[in-house]
Structures are given as C-alpha cells and as structure tokens.
Amino acid sequence: MRFHWIKPTSRACCIAGVVTRVHVGKMTLDQAIDYTLSLERQCKNSHLIPKRELQSLKRDSKTELERIRKSAGAVPAAGGR
Question: Residue 4, exposed/middle/buried by CB under 10 A (0-12, 13-18, 19+)?
C-alpha cells in the first residue's frame, strides 16, 4: 500500500483542516499536519506520505495562514462609525 488522497479535493480539505487547527486550536503547524493526516479522512496510509508531499503540504498551509492573517488585518471593525 502507498499514500494517496481519497478525492481530488482532499488535499485542499486537509490544508483547510490544518489552517483551522493552527488558527483556532493553537497547535503548531507540524502538530496540526500530523493530527490532520492521522485522522485519515482525506487520505489513506498517512504514515507513508512522501517527504516531498509533506514539504509541499507544509508550504501551502503556511501560505494560506499568511493570506488569512493579512486579510484579517485589512477588515475594518463592524459597526465602527
């Protein structure tokens, strides 16, 4: 057996889960990736993930976190007249 994503959208779902766990759950990026993959909701054989895929997943998760942090700072407070 080898590592594989269950659906074409599974990788994006995994990144969303990682970002959520880091942002809300106060986990580190590595902890969130390990936990999200270990659930095996989006992938099979998570313990066999190739190093290149793991690095790519980490890079894309960091990019998404930065995008969210930048956009959160740009939103004005509600009701601020």
Answer: exposed
Per-residue model confidence as pLDDT tens for the chain (81 residues): 899 999 999 999 999 999 999 989 789 999 999 999 999 999 999 999 999 999 999 999 999 999 988 887 765 656 555
Q: Which of 35, 38, 34, 43 is nearest to 13 (CA)?
A: 43
Q: pTM for the whole thing? A: 0.85
SS (H, E, C) 15-76: HHHHHHHHHCCCCCHHHHHHHHHHHCCCEECHHHCCHHHHHHHHHHHHHHHHHHHHHHHHCC
